[in-house]
Amino acid sequence: MLVGSDWSRYAACVSVPDDLFVEGAEQNRAKAVCGGCPVRTECLAQALDHRIEHGVWGGMTERERRALLRRRPAVSSWLALLEAARHEHDRQTCRAIAG
Fold it and tell me: Are the CB atoms for 39 and 7 separated by under 8 Å?
């Protein structure tokens, strides 16, 4: 886990941040940048925890983030929730591989 904004220097978009603040169909290209990003979880949590309204963050558009926030209004720390989900996913993947 990277604390604060330390994660941002490892982001896949670090060299093209303006490309993530687009509208319409261009958002799909912006979201593709996030696909293999090593700090996608931290980025999405930053946007959700701080209610950032514009741009693609962590592979989600502002519309997608608003919908998620409406579905889960009681979440107090998106970083904790997303990291727990990532840990569980990794654990299940390891189990499946170990067979």
Answer: yes
